[in-house]
Specification:
Elements (H helix, E strand, L loop, with lengths): L6 H28 L3 H10 L3 H12 L4 H11 L2 H13 L4 H9 L3 H14 L5 H25 L9 H14 L6 H17 L7 H26 L1
Helix pairs in contact: 1-3, 1-8, 1-9, 2-8, 3-4, 5-7, 7-8, 10-11
Length: 232
């Protein structure tokens, strides 16, 4: 277990675990209002580890939607995870298929942000086991928070509108790990602005996917031009 859950892993994963407390509890409360029991919540959080996907699925189920629109919408919302997997594959390409299957199941925005930062900073010092450990801590934290929220749904009231603010705060905290150069900060700002602008035309989180790709392409082109200029 030393290479799976250790001090290094816990230090990297604690912002995720802490941030999931209000988000997961709000998701559990929404599930309770929708009519889920604790076992259904447990299964949903285990096999659909995607915060935004779960919130959307619960909202659609609560409004009486049939299963296929729910499935299709969740798939569209989580398309960005394919982009995450492509980016992270360069670091885990040598791992087994079984490892990749478990790892892919637990790629979400937060675990991607933490693991990508650690791989970029530490190189080979951040191992595949460390990355899987971060995913595991995040997933378990989410499961516990959502199930706890469901049990507390009848006893306490949490305005689910606050979830958006909590989610933004957590992402700002995770993004702060990238404050190592002006170019990375500007790339993040550009991505955020583009996501807001594209939200007028794209929905179901496609604006985030498009903004990420465009901002990353602009940053890569700028870096290539800068390196070419330095060589000349």
């Amino acid at each position: 277990m030393d290479g799976f859950i250790n001090k290094k892993v816990l230090k990297a994963a604690w912002p995720i675990a802490f941030g999931y407390i209000p988000l997961g509890m709000a998701c559990g409360i929404l599930a309770q209002k929708t009519g889920f029991d604790w076992f259904q919540m447990l299964m949903m959080s285990t096999f659909l580890f995607a915060g935004s996907g779960q919130f959307i699925a619960l909202a659609m189920i609560g409004s009486g939607s049939t299963i296929m629109p729910v499935v299709m919408t969740v798939c569209i919302v989580n398309l960005r995870h394919l982009l995450y997997a492509l980016i992270l594959n360069q670091y885990i390409a040598g791992q087994s298929r079984l490892y990749k299957a478990f790892y892919a199941q637990e790629i979400v925005d937060e675990t991607f942000a933490v693991n990508h930062t650690q791989f970029a900073r530490l190189g080979k010092e951040w191992t595949g086991s460390n990355a899987l450990g971060v995913n595991f801590v995040g997933h378990v934290s989410w499961i516990l928070a959502t199930v706890a929220g469901l049990f507390l749904g009848n006893t306490i009231y949490i305005d689910t509108a606050l979830v958006s603010y909590a989610l933004i705060a957590m992402f700002i905290g995770l993004w702060s790990f990238h404050f190592v150069s002006p170019s990375l900060v500007l790339t993040g700002v550009l991505g955020g602005i583009l996501a807001l602008v594209l939200s007028f035309w794209l929905d179901h989180m496609l604006n985030v996917v498009a903004a990420t790709i465009i901002a990353a392409a602009v940053a890569a082109a700028y870096r290539a031009m800068a390196e070419k200029g330095a060589e000349e």
